[in-house]
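comment on this one:
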Amino acid sequence: MPKIQMLNMEGKSIQEVELKEDIFNIEVNEHAVYLVVKNILANRRQGTQSAKTRAEVRGGGRKPWRQKGTGRARQGSIRSPQWKGGGVVFAPKPRDYSYTTPKKVRRLALKSVLTSKVQENELILVDALKLEETKTKAMVQALKALKAAKKSLILVGEGNESVARAAKNIAGVKVLNIQNINVYDLLKYDSLILDQEALNKIQEVY
């Protein structure tokens, strides 16, 4: 069973905590992670891109020159795709890119990323994410004490808005509610910081 040191906000070790075997110590499935990240990015696409086909471009009703006898190639419209200002052959149109992946695949991917965080020593466990004052300076000092990377993801429970406000203006740091945990954000940041409450929630749900 994997173990990790629990720290306080000053960066001092308090106790050793055992992590759940089937969440933080599984065989990493890279393909499942790939599928879920691909799905997340697809769902985030707006799908609002649009261009006009030759039927939608204004003008081009008159044949530019007669069919034969000019020595030039025959043309039916100045709005054909080969003309400047013409329509686009396979013009992109607004569409919905979103789709779903199976729940089992999403869970496997999340567990794989959490396992990799433990294996690569990128998981920082804190007893309680609390600041004496809700200021950016206090948050910066706490991150230094915890030896967090410049790009850090902080998972908090419900009602912990002070940490989110304090970290709002720190570049490379993101605060995420434990309910919104996702594979993409876990991979994007080099350090994962969570407190005892968030850890219990993860081990309870997954």
User: Anything to note?
Assistant: The CA atoms of residues 32 and 105 lie 6 Å apart. The chain has a mean pLDDT of 91.
